[in-house]
Amino acid sequence: MAKKSVATLQTGSKRLTKAIKMVKSPKTGAYTFVEAVMAPEAVGEFLDKK
After folding, report:
1. What is residue 12's predicted lDDT score, i.e. its pLDDT?
2. Sign of dihedral through CA atoms 36, 39, 44, 45?
3. Which domain of life is it from (predicted)?
4. The 3-11 sheet, strands edge to edge
5. Given a cut of 60, is residue 33 above it in pLDDT?
6. What pLDDT does 15 receive?
7. Cα separation, 19 vs 38, whole angstroms
8. What confidence category does residue 34 fall into, taking pLDDT thresholds of 50, 70 and 90?
9. What is the pTM of this model?
10. What's the pLDDT score for residue 8?
11. If we measure between CA atoms, which residue out of 37, 3, 5 comes closest to residue 23?
């Protein structure tokens, strides 16, 4: 599984990170992109999840 693009976003006093990972569909075999904006500490957990 290919993954990860991470960008750091700063809005006011909050520090957020946008993570994008490629997920392969088990039915069709096509890849889709899953995006999420979260705290920098949660990025590793997000990328490790299937």
Report:
1. 64
2. negative
3. Bacteria
4. 3-11, 14-24, 31-38
5. yes
6. 83
7. 8
8. very high
9. 0.61
10. 67
11. 3
Q: What is the 3-state secondary structure (H, E, C) of the chain?
A: CCEEEEEEEEECCEEEEEEEEEEECCCCCCEEEEEEEECHHHHHHHHHCC
What spatial distance separates the first Cα and last Cα of the chain, rounded to whole Å?
A: 9
Give the span between the Cα atoms of 22 and 14, in whole angstroms.
26
Is residue 9 packed enough to be buried (19+ CB in 10 Å), middle (13-18) or exposed (0-12)?
A: exposed
Which residues, other chains included, contact 25 with Cβ-Cβ below 8 Å and sequence gap of 6+?
Answer: 31, 32
Q: Give the CA count within 13 Å in the CB-facing half-sphere of 10.
A: 2
Amino acid identity at 23 = V
